[in-house]
């Protein structure tokens, strides 16, 4: 692993993400880029030197104060002992948070994005969603999201939840790398649902073929659930899983509204870290 990106809003969740990312960076000698975006409603981007052309005077003054605060906090983090011996870069942008995170991902081409998320529910989940969910849906690299503090030393069990239909070599490789760093045991999980049920004999045979195709060594599990999301979360809770890994199809527009995303739902509702990667249908 050579490059890790950590977007931060300086919240507790973002600090948890930075702590875990710093551990991974130290163990892999990766460069860590810490990104802060000053959110400006109605703007995709804003020159952080203050040269905006369509922001009025009072709003411009407020934005510049926010930018200066962001610079100060990034500087403070640079001197944090947590980041000692980390090859660190900092970036400050202003405008739309998701737009700027996506731009940095495309320019910087990190091999891993680590993000804190608070999750959402009800109307907020339907209408807004979080920036973390949007990044999970669209990023071309693996994304690790977390809500609570965790260290590599506490990741003992990793579950790889899959439909067994996709070629997940890139996601499997990243999941194996994190599991190796924490000496964790890997579990391969297939959820049986009422609308997508198959015999255990068939599933275990497919699992063996899947593991061979993706270079995996794992303990195999079949779990029955009402749906995939609930089945994954139930299995994780019942089996002391510390990290969930899974692919996402990154559906957009009408397809996303109609069918949703199992990975985004798991990211939104899981208390455990979730590693995702956009995969082809």
- Strand portion, in percent? 15-25%
- According to CATH, the fold-level topology of the largest domain is Rossmann fold
CATH class of the largest domain: Alpha Beta
Distance between the termini: 26 Å
The number of E-state strands comes to 11
Average pLDDT = 85
Work out the count of structural domains: 2
Q: Low-confidence parts, pLDDT < 50 over ≥5 residues?
A: 49-53, 121-129, 251-260
CATH architecture of the largest domain: 3-Layer(aba) Sandwich
Main beta-sheet annotation? 11 strands, mixed
* CATH H-tier superfamily of the largest domain: HUPs
Spatially, the strands of the biggest sheet line up as 3-4-2-1-5-6-11-10-7-8-9
Radius of gyration: 20 Å
Helicity range: 40-55%
Could you state the order of secondary-structure elements as H and E?
EHEEHEHEHHEEHEHEHEHHE
Report the total helices: 10
Shape: elongated
Content-based structural category: alpha/beta
